[in-house]
Every structure is written in C-alpha cells, then in structure tokens.
Amino acid sequence: MAQFKKNKYLKPFKNWFILIFVVFAVWMLFFDANSWLIHHELNSEIEALENEKKYYKREIEKDKKAIKKLSTEEGMEKFARETYYMKKDNEEIFIIEYEDSLKIKKDD
Predict the structure, then answer these.
(1) What is the distance between the alpha carbons of residues 17 and 4, in angstroms, rounded to a whole number?
(2) Where is the CYTH domain (predicted)?
(3) Coil, helix or strand for 98?
(4) What is the pLDDT of residue 29?
(5) Predicted confidence (pLDDT) per residue in 33-44, tens digit
(6) Domain-by-domain residue ranges, the chain?
(7) Angle subtended at Cα 21 by Cα 17 and Cα 27, rounded to the nearest 5 degrees
(8) Would you give the DSSP letter of residue 94?
C-alpha cells in the first residue's frame, strides 16, 4: 500500500470519481452492446453495402440502356444476328475469325 502512495502514475486513481470514470469509459468502449468496436464494424458494413448499392445502380442503368436498344425492331434484329447468327431466308452469313481470336492448343 505504501508503494501505491509513492507511484506518481497511480496517484490519480486514489480519487473515486476518476476511477469510476475510467471503468465506465473502458466498459463503454469495449464491452457494452453499443461499444465503439461494434459501431466500427457496423460502419464498415454500411460502407460496403453502400458501395454495393452504387454498383447495382450502375448495372441497372446499363441494363435499362440495353433494354431500350432491344425494344426497337432494328435493335432486336441486330442482337439476333450477332448473338444467335440468325439470318433472313434470302441471305448468306460469313463468319470471319482472326487468328488471334482463335483458341488453339499448342502441343509441347
């Protein structure tokens, strides 16, 4: 006990108000249901969700533009020709592939 009175770092803890305040602050920062740690986790989760929300809004805008293009007769025809290689009865289609776009297996 004599050492407690001599140590200058422990001297403020003789006051009960300071001791109670320190215990309260530690409890609120680390152990309480509304602690700083939980708030930090929740804030990072909110930030991640907001970034995901922005990403999906951009994707929705891209999809709206694609739907707008496909809503016209010309857009639908272009999509069918490019994706499914559809043609009219009196047409012939030639598909040109370049060497760098072909997947060739190299025998070692």
Answers:
(1) 17
(2) 48-108
(3) coil
(4) 79
(5) 778 888 889 999
(6) 1-32, 35-96
(7) 150
(8) -
